Amino acid sequence: MTLTPSSADADSGHAHALIMAGGCSLRMRASLGGRHKAMVEVLGVSMLERNIMALLAHGFHQIVVAISAQEKALIALARGRAARVARAGGATLKVYLERRPLGTIGAAKAIRAGAEHLLIVNVDNLTALDLTAFLSHHRATRAAMTIATHVEPFPIPFGQVSIQKGGVIEYKEKPILPVLLSSGTYVLSPAARRRIPAGRPVGAPELVHILLREKRKVSAFTHSSPWIDVNDAASVERAEALIMANFCSFELQRQPPHREIVVLGVLKDGRVALAKSSLRGQTALPVEQVHSAAESPSDTALRLGNRIRLPVMKPQLVASFDELDSRTGERTRCHLFACELAARPRGTNSLSQRGVRWLNVNQLSKSHGNSRTVAYLNRYIASQNPHSVRH
Known about the structure:
By secondary structure, the chain is of the alpha/beta class. The protein is built from eleven helices and 21 strands. It has helices at about 25-30, 45-55, 70-90, 130-140, 190-195, 205-215, 235-245, 245-250, 295-305, 350-355, 370-385; strands at about 1-5, 15-20, 40, 45, 60-70, 90-100, 120, 125, 145-155, 160-165, 165-175, 175-190, 220, 225-230, 260-270, 270-275, 285, 285-290, 315-325, 330-340, 355-360. The strands form five sheets. It has an eight-stranded mixed β-sheet with strand order 1-6-5-2-7-12-9-13. Strands 15, 16, 17, 18, 19, 20 and 21 form a seven-stranded mixed β-sheet that branches.
């Protein structure tokens, strides 16, 4: 469903959230191709879907995505895959079309959430911020607007000099200074939304200045959660490294999964082992279900290695992440392990008899496992061998 300013209403009984994706995405398109940044995948998942999953994890049931009316492909993604994911997670997702640019916060005026406070996130910000605590802090402080803030280390490319009474008392070469920044995430009260000027672009700084001039309270919620702004190809690489280093914070939902599985990547000389799947004539990365709470994912990985009958080294956990089935709403927690082949079995025929096919890692595609699994495994392989080619 497409919202207009007169139909952007949502039920007041649930928490409401607005994802800002109305920009032109010029920097991302200049460095990574023609796609809007909301559609760019980070470890196999679009940034739009990553933001939706974060909102679902914290119980936001009414989600609106603000998109430029010119972005046909992004609108199709939001109305299709994104809406199905939201629905599977127990939420509704609607699209608000910006017929003209409204800035970084202007669309919030059109989202009528009754007496509810409105959470605003930017689609190009990926963070493990506790949105539940953030919203609770806003309500507790009775603020008109609350801004999530964090300390970001900024390297200074010059020498910093401290002077006292005309004399140099300290000299620091290229210091790294902590700077308190906005995390691009806000909560607005109904009163704050009413103060947003209508019919023109409005940025978050302008709204802050309006509220401060009127002596309304603007609160800060300072956090230390991982955070990154993703606006070009280089920042996509950094985002993948950040998420991989903090996968428990980014990838595991608060809700318990319906089942847990282990996926095993057996590696040898730049190749990965594929095993026969339940689909006749097709092979994929080996998968095994974790049988019970008494069995650890590591135990399952070892059992999986024995099942495919290959001599493997001890499996290492690459990442764990939760997948939400957009059709059934079932949550699956996937534990991805990787290991090296301990010794190559003699002869190609022995490999065939074991039901294993070997594929060069740079040929691994989504047909051999879900997109997140493939992306994580490729990044892991690249980290082990910087000269390998990522697919």
